[in-house]
Each structure stands twice: as C-alpha cells, then as structure tokens.
Amino acid sequence: MFACRKLGRDELDSWAERYEAARSSMVELNKRKNKQPNAIDDLMEEMESNLMLQGATANEDRLQPQVPETIALFAEAGINLWMLTGDKQETAINIGFATKLITDTMEQMVYTTDEMELPRIVQVRRHMALVAA
Fold first, then answer.
1. What is the span of the domain harbouring residue 43?
2. Residue 76 lies in a domain
3. Is 0.70 surpassed by the pTM of this model?
4. 29-42 per-position pLDDT tens digit
C-alpha cells in the first residue's frame, strides 16, 4: 500500500530532529527492543497518520502475512475492492477466498472476455458504477 500527505518544511524538520534524537537514545532503543511504549514508535505513528491512501500493489504469488485481515478491514470500512488477474477462473476464486476478498455470504459475479464482448464489458462497468454511486 502507499499513501501520502503534504508536509511543510518546518513540520518535517521538527519531526526529523525529534526522530533522530529518539533513534539515538539508548533508552528509547531498549524500550522498542523490549516492545514497550517508546518515542520512536510514537514518532513513526505521528508521521504515518492522516495519510491519503493512493493505492496498493503486490508482485509475489505467495500470500503475505496479514493480507486477509487487512482486506477484511478494508471491506468493513466500506472500501470497494476489485481483483484483476490473469489467473484461471478457479485459481482467482480460490485466491479471493484465501485473502478474504470473497466470503461465503457474497454473491459472485464473474465476467470473462470469453463470455462477453468488449463493448458489453464496458456497459456492465458503467452500470456497476452507477449502482455503486
């Protein structure tokens, strides 16, 4: 996933100074090593808050840790998710279930280029966009 937010030069400089001080502190490093609350994690959380999600990408075949839980949270938050794949239909459906992109309670609508002409696919997408709006 990748996200961003705008920072002013003063805000960045102030944060970078505090972050460097925390990373140079043996006390804070030991707290972090022992999984205790610490200034390093607090500063990372500060910088990683109020971000605007830009997108997500993946490039490995194996399922990464926390992917199903993350996708489930996106769905609970009402974020629309789409899976585009070059896999066989059966493989894509299995991946959908493994990642919690698809659940047993969902109605599955599968569109393939074998079953539809390109103009029909575009028409279906437009209809789906209107229904979602």
1. 1-57
2. no
3. no
4. 999 999 999 999 99
